[in-house]
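Handout, section B. The chain below has 154 residues.
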Amino acid sequence: MDDIDPDQARTALEAAERAQRQVADEIGLPRAYWWAMAGGWLLLGVLGTVASPWLAGAATLLFGAANAALAPRLLDGRRRTSRLQVGSALASRRIPWLVVGMLATLVALTVLAALALDADGADHAGIWAGLLAAAVIGFGGPEILRVLRRWAHA
């Protein structure tokens, strides 16, 4: 260790920090989770428009229960891919709160979009609002979570 000059030590530390950032970037939820959420969101939009309120309500409760059953295993963000499973010290405890907050915000935006579309006279406003939210979740969920993690330092 005495033979290492400061430049070599600095290079080694930078390489280690770069590797840790790459591993931290792997933290998140699997892409299949986001597409399942998007499909469920769209299905709820369709059911809310064409089904009885009781069926739509029951489907919403079932969707929430299924998500709650998966959440404890997935929301810690430590098992995004089969290639890597990071330790809990690297995965922030804020990740579940970020995901729940993100989904709650999307629920509010979906309701607002449906109300705005309905006020504008659009047919099947719930389906269109569900489709909009599903597209955002399916295509942008991981990227949105990545940005939120950066903002929250999680």
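Note. Residues 6-152 form one domain. Compare this with the example in section A.
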